[in-house]
Structures are given as structure tokens and as C-alpha cells.
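Researcher: Sequence recovery benchmark, item below. Answer with residues only.
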């Protein structure tokens, strides 16, 4: 018998806003989240624009002593997970936590941490590398920290499949629920690659727009004069664009994006 799988909550923390409501409002209003990069000095970079998360305060979700153990991608994932489970009106006490899993993917993981710790190595040698370097940078620790926070003891995984990582996480989570390996999955994707190496690397492969004088209209993948990569992503935004996340229990999540609570 095929099990029915539905989306019951969505959490968004992105360039359009912090929280699902704010992000959705700006999305339907046609706002662009792209602007000039503020996180580092872009002098000498071909691309000087990106979709930064603005005014993100990790201390709303994470204690100061825990922050040093987490790359920015983990911080954002925890915030999005909080919005998702609240959107689903779910609390850990509502479920058998052995039946609740987490599957949050990332293309690269803690790029900011890798750059920071490599600089320490170059400047001061291996003795300067933080003991938190690896656990704050590896891709699967977004899922790990979310599972710790909610006590989820079910399936826990992460894929590192570039721009399709989020869609893979949601699709795989559907399969996990469908085959009976879990009753609920918190799933989606997280990324934090707006760093000197991240932007420089993608720009070097001509994957980024150089329309630095018009950030809000720089993303035009189907325009004859486009620059950068074309990229079609269908994950949470596919459901959100149809308004499905607004329902407490959404329609059947058919296709490759099916889950219970979603982070993005």
C-alpha cells in the first residue's frame, strides 16, 4: 500500500526575508533579494552582487557558547527549521521521536569556516586550527544539530549535490516516509557560500552575473543577454508558488519534493 505523504510546514530564511511570511510577501510582490555584497570587500572581484540574508541574528536561535561550533550554514538551517516546525504546529512531544528524522543538505557546507581555518593554518601553523573546525564545517552537521535540538532519533542524512541538494533531500525524505522508515522528516537545504573563495570560485567558472550596476535585475536566465549559469530549482519554492504551504496540511506532495516539515 502506498503511503500518503504531505507537506505540513515550511520554513524560509533567505535573501527575501527571515521567516516564511516575510519571504512569501516579498516573493509575491516581485522583490529581488540580490544586492551589493556587504560581507567582505569585493574590490578586484568580477562579481560584486549576491543574495545575502539581511539582518540575520543567530542569537535568536543559538546560545553564544554553541555558536562557535557552527558554520553559518548550520545557523541558518536551525533558524529555518524553527520556522518550519512552528508552521507545522509540531512539538517534539507530539511524536515518537524514533520515527522523526532529519535530512538537510548543502552543496558545500561551512565554506566560511574552511576559509577562516585555512588562514589560521597559513599564518600560524596547524596549532592554530580550532578543534571545532571539522564539526562546524561538514555538510551533515546541519542535520545533526537540528536532530539534537528536537530530539529526532529517526533517519538522519545529508546530500552534497550542488544546486539540487535541497530537492534531493526533500525527494529522499518522501521516500523514507513512503516506505515506512519514518513518520516525519524535517528536510530541505542550507547554504552559506557568500565568501571571498565562494564568490571568486564561481565567478572564475563564469557562473555568476557581472551586472553589478543593476543587482535587482541581474538574474535573467532566459534573457538573450544573460550571463552566469541557468539554474532551475524546484523545491520548497515550487510548492510555495502555488500557495500550498499556507494550508495546515497541504495537498499530496507529488513528484520529487515530498516531506512533512521543510527547511530551506
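Model:
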Amino acid at each position: 500500500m502506498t503511503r500518503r505523504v504531505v507537506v505540513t510546514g515550511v520554513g524560509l530564511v533567505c535573501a527575501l526575508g527571515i521567516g516564511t511570511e516575510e519571504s512569501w510577501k516579498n516573493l509575491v510582490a516581485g522583490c529581488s533579494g540580490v544586492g551589493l555584497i556587504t560581507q567582505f570587500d569585493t574590490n578586484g572581484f568580477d562579481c560584486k552582487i549576491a543574495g545575502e540574508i539581511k539582518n540575520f541574528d543567530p542569537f535568536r536561535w543559538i546560545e553564544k557558547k554553541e555558536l562557535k561550533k557552527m558554520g553559518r550554514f548550520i545557523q541558518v538551517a536551525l533558524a529555518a527549521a524553527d520556522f518550519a516546525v512552528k508552521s507545522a504546529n509540531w512539538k517534539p512531544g507530539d511524536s515518537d521521536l524514533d520515527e522523526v528524522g532529519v535530512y538537510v543538505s548543502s552543496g558545500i557546507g561551512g565554506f566560511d569556516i574552511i576559509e577562516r581555518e585555512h588562514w589560521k593554518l597559513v599564518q600560524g601553523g596547524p596549532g592554530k586550527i580550532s578543534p571545532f573546525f571539522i564539526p562546524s564545517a561538514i555538510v551533515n552537521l546541519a542535520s545533526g544539530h537540528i536532530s539534537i535540538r528536537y530530539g529526532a532519533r529517526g533517519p538522519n542524512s545529508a546530500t552534497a549535490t550542488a544546486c539540487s541538494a535541497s530537492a534531493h533531500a526533500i525527494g529522499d525524505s518522501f521516500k523514507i516516509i513512503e516506505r515506512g522508515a519514518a513518520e516525519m522528516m524535517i528536510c530541505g537545504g542550507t547554504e552559506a557560500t557568500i565568501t571571498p573563495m565562494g564568490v571568486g570560485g564561481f565567478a572564475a567558472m563564469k557562473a555568476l552575473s557581472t551586472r553589478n550596476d543593476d543587482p535587482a535585475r541581474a538574474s535573467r536566465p532566459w534573457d538573450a543577454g544573460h550571463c552566469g549559469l541557468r539554474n532551475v530549482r524546484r523545491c520548497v519554492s515550487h510548492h510555495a508558488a502555488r500557495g500550498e504551504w499556507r494550508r495546515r496540511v497541504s495537498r499530496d506532495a507529488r513528484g520529487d519534493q515530498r516531506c512533512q516539515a521543510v527547511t530551506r
